[in-house]
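Standup notes
- DV: blocked on the single-chain target, sequence here:
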Amino acid sequence: MTASSKHQHKSKAELIAELERLEMLIAGSDKGETAPIIRNTMVDAIEALQDGLAIFDADERLVLSNNKYLELHPAVADVLVPGVHIADIVSTAAQRGQHLNALHRDEAWVAERLKAFRNPGEPIEQEFSDGQWLRVYERKTADGGTVGVGVDISELKHREKQLFESQQRLNDYLEASSDWHWEMDQDCRFSYFSDQFEKVTGVLPSMLFGKTREETGIPDIEPSVWQEHLDNLAARRSFRDFRHPRTLDDGVVVTLSINGKAIFDAAGNFTGYRGTGRDITDLVVAEQNARRAESLLAKAIESIPEGFVLFDAEDRLVMCNQRYRDFASGFSDLIVEGVKFEDLARASAERGVFNVEPDQSEQWATDLISDFHNGAANKEYQFSDGRWIQTIDSPTDDGGHLGLRVDITERKQAEQALQERERRYRQIFDSADICLWDEDFSELYKRLQHLRDGGLTDLRSHLMAHPDHVWDLANCIKVNHVNEATLRLFGAASEEELLGSLDQILPEGAENLFLEEMVAIWEGRTNYRAEVMHKSFTGEDLWVIVTMPVPGNMEEARSVPISVIDITEKKQTEEELARHQDELVILIDERTQELRETEAYLSSAIESISEGFVLYDPNDRMVMCNEKYKDFYPLMRDEFVPGAELKHVARLGFERGVVKASANNIDHWMNVRLTQQATGRGSHEQELPDGRWLLCTDRKTANGYTVGIRTEITEVKQAGELLRQSQKMEAIGQLTGGVAHDFNNILAAIIGNLDLIQTGDSALDKMDQEGISIALRAAFRGAELTDRLLAFSRQKPLDAKDTNINDLLPPFRDLATRTIGANIEFGLELADGLWPVLVDPGELENALLNLAINARDAMPNGGQFTITTTNWTAHENNLDGEQELAPGDYVKVAVKDNGTGMSEQVSKRAFEPFFTTKEVGAGSGLGLSMVFGFAKQSGGLATLNSVDGEGSTINIYLPKAIQLASAENIQTATKSEIPKGCETILVVEDDIDIRDFLLRALKHFGYTVIVAEDGPAALDVMATSGDIDLLLTDVIMPRGMSGRDVAKAFSERYPTAGVLYSSGYAREALDQSGEVDEGETVLSKPYQAQSLAKMVRNALDQRA
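- DV (later): unblocked, structure below
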């Protein structure tokens, strides 16, 4: 107890006064003989508790607190008086710096504390500025008050000890009564009331004469109670203490108690009732207050976390809480009021409740009883199930005993765990492979605190100005112990030799190392880390990393673990890596030159084709075109330069007459030309001023570029010639695809190695980083170019997406309206709840645009053009015509016009390629066949219904989407952490540069890699190798074995391993050639190291 809190202790008289104040809350309290006895007992009980206790009323004002509570709150003891508000107590504690967590955040801490007080839950642990710890238990009472118990857990924090107190019990009853007499006749009608009735109730008896009980009014009581009373009257049974409320004339509600005796004559005939009545309002109030006081006491006792028990002067049990019963589970059947302590002690010994040897149980019980009688306050006992309790017994003034039972199992376990941790720490310390030092910084910590108390604020500047002080302070650090690994590293024979010659291993400028350690402690950092060079006893240079947790207090400073990690080999490796980086720079320069040569080769290949070639970027600006393209438009040759806008080129071409437009209308021409460019689908024919004809094919690539091919078809206007031209385009596509494949192989090696260097662990200077970034950007431009060539050669698959056609049609109508003209009414009839379909949106728009143009040509004088969407389910043979559709759910897109229509003979051939009824030059005959082919390729069907002279309807059936279409493979994933592994991978690749890159990259990711240059070499590897987890193979390889052949042999030998293909050809080309099966994973070249890592990891994780 501190001097500051000692004078705050209350005398017994003061506590009695506070109890009397609490008793005044109970109206009409009894001043009889029992009240002082109970009050004195409760005062003794509260003061006997070793925990702080405080009771707050519903208005959050202090009602009662014991002296222990004042001891636990010395900083605010002077304000802890009855009536003070909790907010004032908390604010004062924060202002006076009692709570460590409140420092520099008074307002926030006060708000948090009040919130916890008003919504009590789990116990709160508080750390005081003087190092004291307090655990606060708060519970709400039924009347809205709060009971708070404070337990000093300072020793628990260090040795896990805790004490708790219980709360005073209040139990006082006040009863008052006043009686009157009444009578009923044989019909149970009131016939008499004494004068006291009117005095008590204010009701004239004459108003009730002749009335039955029901006729006097139903009282405000439970229906069951009222019915029971009526049943007694009907059965002519006597009754006692029938209670009901009555409201007097002045509005006061009183409670009446009625007793009635049934009267029978000598013959046994019922003659009526005689009874008494009493005003028991004071008694009811007293009972309610007594129950409230009992409840308050019981809840307060039950709310404390310790077992509470009270024995009288004869050692007989008076009361206990549930927690005490929990502790006495082995003899709980004996826990009844009046049982003697000696019986409980001997029963617990006989039943083996506590951890006592059987032959010692009797003596143990005798000692326990003796300790109880002698007032042994604190004893510790262990149950046979391993739990520990502490008994705290105190005598009461009347000769009884008040006891607390505290569960200290957690503390005991913590002590044992601490001892075990200390033992294991020392064992780990001594046997660790890394060098460990245990040093004592306590004297240094004390010296630094002295400097701070003396007003020093900048330690670094002070030590740099006084370097001799560094060594003076460094000598305060003492080495407690070093482990065997430390002795081995420095070549010392013993710890004594090492510590006696520390100056031999310290590096030059060691004072800077010590200075930084001291500054770290001064600034309150959490860790200190430094990379320094030491000397071994043999004179060798040792590069080490020194890591130290910075001590935050004096206790931590006494034992600070310091790790010393040998990085000498790492330093040597870094020097070796620097030499390799120089070699890589040379390799990058060589590969960059190869890339330039490849670009020149690609440009030469484009120039060598006989078709005009043009490439526009996503913003419709020209990227490049070949000489053939310029030859087709000689009047525009000077305008065909990189960056030229399509709008400008198209308008200028019309004005210069480089093409014969179908109408002498520049706006119409521009609309058609820009629509063709925007859709990037299909082909159209174009007549030049000199009579030549061009087949213009524009295609959109996946990244938004537009590839345009201009093929002269002057001599192939007929169907046969168009077919040969198509074959020629296919040959060009094959050539372009082959060129793209070879270029992709080169790019794969370049991009992969550059990306591996850039993302690797080696440090690169700024110039190297910029050089690698420039080379990567150039390589990616090459990759984009190959992607466009693959799109042109039709080796890229449809870009199928999960599409709602209703969302697609409104913007399409805006586009198509400009194409078909203002004299045609374009209508949309869109079904609600339309199913999504899996379709290429661009190809669908192209098909619909073809149908819109056909409808326009069929309605030269205008008309109606309507697109309708509906959900449609196909059944067996439910379509007209010869076509069949597989049963299932589809979205039906009906395209209808009221134009000229078709005859039956024309309708039958409408879907045939090159069939047309238009004039020569007005159409290719491929429009409807393209629509039909698109529908079939999408898994659906297209049908035609037409009536000559009335119009036509084209129905396109597209299958309902089952799930969201998967997009590109894992290569398109955004940058994220690169997955790694430790499995074994067989790499089969005929390109030596790619093979070397894969070897380096996969080893970098942690895998074991085996390489083979072709299929036969891979078979030799499989014949001599152990387990292999994944095959990564090129698809097209020399020496008669493809990647598929290698994969088949690999799967037969390693049935549970994974297979991952890699190719510079597009996936669609591989599927068509049968080189890979549907569903097999292909890693498309070129790829970055991150994409390689993710695809390999995914293939390994999906193994059988």
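- Follow-up: The mean pLDDT is 79.
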